[in-house]
Write a structure and sequence with these properties.
By secondary structure, the protein is α+β, with helices and mostly antiparallel strands. It contains twelve helices and five strands. It has two domains: 105 residues, no CATH class; 126 residues, Cytidine Deaminase, domain 2. The protein has a five-stranded mixed β-sheet with strand order 2-1-3-4-5, sandwiched between helices. Strand 3, helix 10 and strand 4 form a beta-alpha-beta unit.
């Protein structure tokens, strides 16, 4: 009987011991946090980066091994960012604290992709509006409806989350929209929401909601410039499609919208 251990046997034994005793017992050069400081975050694997966020694993499983299991279940970091809170909580080894840490990190990453709030954001074209809006809906698993409020020069004054859930199930409040407009002294508004299904098509409820907003804001002199729907690698603009003109006409509202389409709003 060969008593010599192969390299694979040694690695399996070492990994087994590490899983049972935790990352703190690993050689310092192998620990994710120490490697991050020594080589930079870019040198770490997805599982190691995730392990630093989780900090600890669970009984008999190191944070790195737990991270590998999570990535195996979800598929990738991007897929993890699109996983709902309830689905994360259903993964063995993830409790409230760990899920909160992951969700916070994902939201930070999402906000980093937003335009820098230290600089004024100006929207003067539909393309600029879409680019600005897309960052707001990155990796969301639920439908979010937002209102982008602008002054007469197209400067973004406020970006407000109106509701979470479809227009049918969580209809955005017209009172909230009017209140936001009054508080910011906005002259115009762009409505936006995402379709997690991936298909950017205006539903009948979307059309009715847009008409209601047009009618509610007309008496106070605020223009609805567009309603943009963001799907998966596709989008839909009420203004570009001519649907907003039809809705305004049907509402009996005569507003000079001055929206430059595609290359103008």
């Amino acid at each position: 009987m060969d008593l010599e251990m192969t390299t694979d046997d040694i690695n399996k034994t070492t990994n087994k011991k590490r899983s049972k005793t935790g990352i703190n017992t690993w050689p310092k050069d192998d620990r994710p946090r120490e490697r991050l400081f020594r080589q930079g975050a870019h040198a770490l694997t997805d599982a190691e980066l995730l392990a630093i966020l989780l900090r600890v694993g669970m009984q008999g499983t190191s944070a790195v091994e737990l991270s590998r299991q999570i990535l195996k279940k979800t598929g990738s970091l991007k897929a993890l960012s699109e996983t709902s809170l309830s689905a994360l909580l259903a993964i063995k080894g993830l409790k409230d604290a760990k899920v909160a840490q992951l969700s916070a990190a994902i939201e930070i990453a999402r906000r980093i992709n937003k335009p820098d709030t230290r600089n004024k954001v100006v929207i003067k074209t539909t393309l600029e509006a879409k680019k600005y809006i897309q960052s707001r809906f990155l990796a969301l698993t639920e439908e979010h409806c937002r209102a982008i409020l602008l002054n007469r020069l197209g400067v973004v004054l406020e970006d407000t989350l109106l509701a979470v859930g479809s227009v049918d199930r969580a209809r955005p409040s017209l009172r909230l929209i009017v209140s936001c407009v009054m508080q910011t002294n906005a002259s115009a508004i762009i409505l936006a929401h995402n379709h997690p299904s991936g298909v950017a098509v205006a539903s009948e409820s979307d059309k009715i909601f847009t008409g209601d907003v047009v009618s509610a804001l007309h008496p106070i002199g605020v223009r609805v410039l567009d309603h943009i729907i963001i799907g998966d690698n596709n989008d839909f603009s009420f203004a570009d499609s001519g649907l907003l003109d039809e809705i305004i006409l049907m509402s009996g509202v005569t507003i000079e919208r001055k929206i430059v389409r595609k290359e103008r709003v």
